[in-house]
Amino acid sequence: KQDHQPYFTEPRRIRRFYEALRPSESPEATQGAFRPAPGLLVLLTSLQWDSSGEPHVPGNLGLWGDIFRQKTDSSAARSVGKRAGHFATPEQLLEAMFSLSRVDTEAGPLQIYLALSALDSRRSFQHQIGPGTARRLALKFADLSSQYWIFSEFSELNDESIDLFLDVAASLDHISDITLRGNAMGTFQANIGMWQILARQGEIPEAELNRSWQHVLKPFPGVRSAAQLYDAGCSSLRELVHAAGMRSISQDGIINLLAGPEEGGAQAKQVRRAVASKMQAVLDGQRLVSLDTLLALGDGLKQLPRGKEDREYLISQAGKLGEFEMPRPIFTNRERTEWASGIYNNKHTDLQMRTDLAKVIKASPSATQLEDARGQLAPFLRDTVVGLNYAYYEPPGAETLYNNPLFVRSHDFAGETVSGIKVWQAPQLFGAGAPAGGGAHLVGSLADLPFVLAAAEQDFIAPQNVQALIWREFVPELLTSAILPRWWRVSRNELHAVTLYQRTGEELLIGSQENEDLRKKVMTILSDRMVPQDSNQVEEALLAGRAVEMIPEMLPADTFYLAAEFSRRFADEAGSWGEAGRELHNLIRQHPKEVSWERLSHDFGVPHPTLAQTYARQLLNLPPLPAFAGYYNRILSESWDSSNLYWARLADESGYPPVALNSLVPELTRRMVETIFASHFEDWPGILRALRETGEDFRKGKIAAVNAVDRP
């Protein structure tokens, strides 16, 4: 970042940092063609600073000495670890991070440093993570790091809440029965996932985030039987809906909560109904048992010995558990063992198929038998609450969620089907293209679920161009950025401000053609967002008077940032360069908080789990980043943040209300993916071309699904 260049370019430091970065050995001829040291780029992009101008140290320096001395397979980490006991300043710690920036690993000291720094970045100095909690997070990083993104997204969660999560995760890991453990992990994570959705949508008050989080988690420690798990899941779910203002649990009620807050007029209700209908369609496609049925059976079995429950009613409800049937097998067990060894495992669904609660209810069951019967509801409860998470994050163009009714049921939370998987980490897709293995399914946690579902579904979107392929390095993140943000609380002023910022940026470019002083200011700002080659091309176009021709080749995020930064740096001149600029200047003066950079960044930004270690939405002022392999392969797509800004402008200029973005953005993004025709990994002009072409089709009314959304 420009503000901190003097720190790094100080002669003594730059020599030390360069020596730390420089490899000790020549690169091997067999090394990949991607750029080396992606960790350095991420480190310098996300580095936090303390009030004295020194690099931020999460926890304390003593903690980092211990981290570097941990057992590791990395020779570079071991080498630095030998000197770790001498860390006396933040500068020395940063030098050690430079040394590790070339190491290809997902769980080294550098990755721990980035994650813990992200947790502190959104917290005030008084509420930063304490040394004890930081130590626990560092020790469990290799197993749980994907789970930490929720703590960086919600800075209101304090050390007590974080420690509680670590305690519950450890408790569930100690369940000896692997089937029970998988069901417990799935139910626990699904309830957390719904808490995250409701908190993100503002349906859980900010002041209640800490308390509600703890109440959702506290039922799970001590679970050692299926009946206890069912009770814990129901109790946790009850706390969740209470935190969101709902008195009792019902499936329709939870779907309506997830679909969006009960605010706005008729148009908001229309969009909310459409979102809820799509979620219900996914649950129907997965043949999941209704929460209402599961709760009625659980309560009825508890009341049965007291004679307070209608036995015939319970038998009819129990019959609903058997409405789902496994597809007729096309392979014998021997063939499955031969062709899908280590992949095929239908134990979870097999147990559900053998569940016969009606038989238990018809008999005169003992207390133990009734307890066991209630425990048989736990796998069904797991599937339904997990399915609610899947349904919420349905990516545009999804097919698997509607046509593979085993997809949710087959999610392997405990690693029964695959060995060597860190089950608390982001899930991985297994079994695709292996019908003998039971089909595609996820193995792992629910962390990063929006991205993983998008990656699983992306190939069902058919490119418009015959030679084009779905861009695996880019499309999943693009789809994630379309489904994770929701725009229920965006005002018309805010939506219009997004348009005005882009128009004002364009006015500044046009005005700088004839004004050398303005041109210098514009190019100084754009140099933060562009690589030198692109910046030179823009300046040449301005000097040649070709600004109008060049504007369609500018990223919407660039013109947006240009106007925002110009307004910040040159506030006295902000309203003097065109009609849009004057309107924006007045809007900022009248509604400073509503149209502030922070507000717009939060509402129209995208998640950056690799670049910023969080699912919080934000706009990062960065040039388009290059492609990397391995752990950092997502930073190229995470640096693209123009789509939502451009879709918002289209909606505003076409007269749509802000809530319509909840329907417009996924459809426009799907159409953009169909249109992409890129020629190489870093074909940013190809992406921009697809964005602009989709916008033109939208303006001409060629996108039927989008035109179905009512204007005011």
Descriptive notes:
- With 712 residues, the protein is an all-alpha fold.
- It folds into four domains: 145 residues, no CATH class; 262 residues, no CATH class; 134 residues, no CATH class; 102 residues, no CATH class.
- Helices cover 55% and strands 2% of the residues.
- The strands form two sheets. The protein has a two-stranded antiparallel sheet with strand order 1-2. A two-stranded antiparallel ribbon has the order 3-4.
- A hairpin with a 5-residue loop joins strand 3 and strand 4.
- Helix 12 packs parallel to helix 14, helix 12 runs parallel beside helix 23 and helix 16 crosses helix 23.
- The protein is globular.
- The model has no long low-confidence stretch (mean pLDDT 90).
* Span of the ends, CA to CA: 43 Å
Helix content: 55-70%
Shape: globular
| Overall residue-averaged pLDDT value | 90
What's the total helix number? 38
Low-pLDDT stretches are: none
Q: Roughly what fraction of the amino acids lie in strands?
A: under 5%
Counting helices, strands and paired strands, the structural category is: mainly alpha
Order the strands across the largest sheet as they lie in space. 1-2
Q: What gyration radius follows from the Cα positions, in whole Å?
A: 27 Å
Major sheet: 2 strands, antiparallel
| Strand segment tally | 4
